[in-house]
Amino acid sequence: MIRFASAVSLAALSLAMAGQAWAGAAAPGTEEPGPDALAVAGAVSDTQLPDVVVTATKRTTNLQKTPIAISVMNSEALEDRHVQSLMDLADGAVPGLRIATFEARQSALTIGIRGIVPNDANQPAREQGVGVYVDGVYLGRQHGLGAALLDVERIEVLKGPQGTLFGRNTEGGALSLVTRKPTGEFGMRASAGIGNLNAYNSQLHVDFDAIGDFAIKMDGVISVQGPVTKNILPGEEGFGAYDRRGLRGQVRWTPTANFTANLAADIGKDKNTPFYSQLLNFNPNGLRVVPWTSTSIPSGSIRALAPIVQVNGDSIMKRADIGTPQQWSVDDTRGVDLHLSYQATDSLELRSITAYREVDVEQYDNIAGAHRPPVTGPNANFSRYSLAGLWQHQFSQEFQAVGSLGDRIDYVGGLYYFKETASDDAATPSTNRWNADGTGYTILDPTPTIRGFRSIDRQSRAESESKAVYGQATWTPAVLNDALHVTAGGRFTWDDKSGVLSKVNNVATNFTFQEKNERFNPMVTVAYDVSDDVNVYAKYATGYRAGGASSRSLTYRSFGPEDIKSYELGLKSDWLDRRLRLNAAAFYSEREDSQIDFSLVTVIGASTRNTLETINAPGTTKIKGVELEAMAQVTDGLTLSASYAYTDAQVPPTRNPFSGVVQQVFIAFTPENAFNLAADYTAPMFGATFKAHVDANYADATQAFDQFELKNDSSFIVNGRLALADIATRPGGPLIEVSLWSRNLLNEQYVYRRDPSNRATIGDYGNFNTPRTFGLEIGLKY
Known about the structure:
The protein is mainly beta. Helix content is 4%, strand content 54%. The protein starts with a helix and ends with a strand.
């Protein structure tokens, strides 16, 4: 209970700190419900499925009338799954959306949709394949994406190329987060909770009464969890822990009925430690084993394991076998954005989105002890400490015109500008030294881990400038009872990127690259309303991802852009008096010049180096799949839902730049089959409302790397939540909710990342998912 009281006090402290922080964050603009929002969300009976509002087309529309494959998770669904960051969606809540850590680090997330998954976008000159947006603002780096979510109203997962309206690097799709906006009426929501693994969390969201034309909203969030694997070295951090905190404020000014300005700012700190990398097997190639104390290793042989090294390929280790120096990695994110909206006429709205964002990352990753190179013997150094930093800042400006021409044409047009500068460096010293017989070790002088004393493996800086003009229009001809809708659009993009790799293996260099790309990406959709409740569409869309250069390359080797063409057939339908909803999409994509990653781990003196080259695959990568979503209102209080994604990707064989061999390559983190089932039940109880939720998520085994055939494990994760809500304290007073939740309820253990790079010297190592977590939470709403 002391921990719970602490969480409550932290929630109050969040608001106090927010008042001293910046004056807002994440505003409306493209996500602002228009005048017809209430009509779209229209009231339905308790026995009917509700309408879902989306803003995927830059205007407020009904999900069932929008000819795009979209999955939506609202705030209630996020709460039921106890989703506190995007990292929590790695369980497969949306089967077509794949989220994984980069390596084992929580400080950078890899996000993929429909087989578009960059294995290593963790570099200044490398782009993501799925665009991540918060209230219409594009986030240029995958760093910082694991930060705490700040009062998200819904998450829209737009599948397939979104090259027309979202544009930059959205060849796989877009992940659009829409946050709650100021209301101008007083309201407060607060919650605090405790859980296993020494976890606690708190939130406080306050809407203030309007002051004249100004509405103000403040948000504060804290989410903490202790280590999953204990570090046995005294005084050092454990593995798989996090401490995420965020503050945001918004100020909305509405001086007239047709003009709105929303200024927002946010600041976040995500402290985390990587997941422990375990040795999953030893000597899988069946080589001759020589004693660990041998002075040399003959060809075709492998050194035995030190006596204290453990092999565990079945479950996550709760206690590390080797103690290593390990401190928090820290992601600092901050940003400010201004959204302006002017209703020029009844049929034309002009918008502006101006945004500036920064992310600073200090990464500390000593997660494997003796489980990965350098693999050494008596009195030699081991345990690779990956020390890296990334610093990025971006500015973007977007102008939009959203309007209609009569009753037949709706259009969106815009101008977009994006400017980014990012730099990074990395060092990999060894921190431990074996004794003579492998029964113990000592910790080395920590000086080489301190910035300014490090031997730098790489150091780079990249700049990117992107300009675009886009437009899209939907025409409803006066035929077929207004049931036919034809949408056409396109985006002209000009990208200019350059960079310098200034240091390699602690030696000054001057490797440079410059990449200029111009593209026109068209889109055409034909939609038809079979009835008021059944809609079908056919869509052709294109997209592209800019080229760049690998900062992990010894020569800063550059690579070109990749382009995609996608063909899609879709169905949106409601049946049985809107008790049953069935949506489906089938797609086929052709991607040219796919960017494929090849890595090579080498030992240089007392440290190791991971060299990575990115190659454009020859020919055409073919990706096809099917996505199904269903929801049923079985009774007044029981709702069942299910979704399924099938994805098949075939990449042409590609020449490995290290071996020179043309080999089969793969798409990472994309299961062939994935599905989700969920049940939600509500009923009156003791004058309050009882709520129950359970969901089950399955995914086939996936590839962890582009170049290796070896797969990760399949997964089956179950989450659940029970709550008693709407508990009245007094007439007209605040309402209380008490809930019990669990993630990974069945404590499923699976390897989500398996690395066979070092089979010849020790064996495969990898990372397990987070074990079962559970907790108690109390919320208050006024």
